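User: Can you help me understand a structure? I only have the sequence.
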Amino acid sequence: MLIQKQREMPFVAVFKLETGEEIIAKIIHETETGYAVKNPLQMIMGQRGAQFAPWMMMADPNKAIDIKKSSIIGETTAEPGLESQYESITTGIALPQKSSIVTS
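Assistant: Let's start by predicting it. Here is the structure, written out as tokens:
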């Protein structure tokens, strides 16, 4: 069960699985035994360095994937910059960077 229970669904979370995989996904539903997620991605090393790839290559991208809580060893919300990048990749919409005020 995610500590950040007060968050409204759907929201983006990061999971560390007992297989060693670390994935980022949008949680759309939670049950007592698992999570239904959409668009789970994992980090892989490519020719140009680290990049995202689908966690389940042959899964229908329009359907939810169930992850059993018993296979999760760690879970948290995503770092804001990573969450923004994930949203951009999975929706095709580039989100603007949050502005900050710079003072001298």
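Now, to help you interpret it: The domain at 11-91 is CATH 2.30.30.100 (SH3 type barrels.). The two ends are 44 Å apart (CA to CA). Let me know which part you'd like to focus on.
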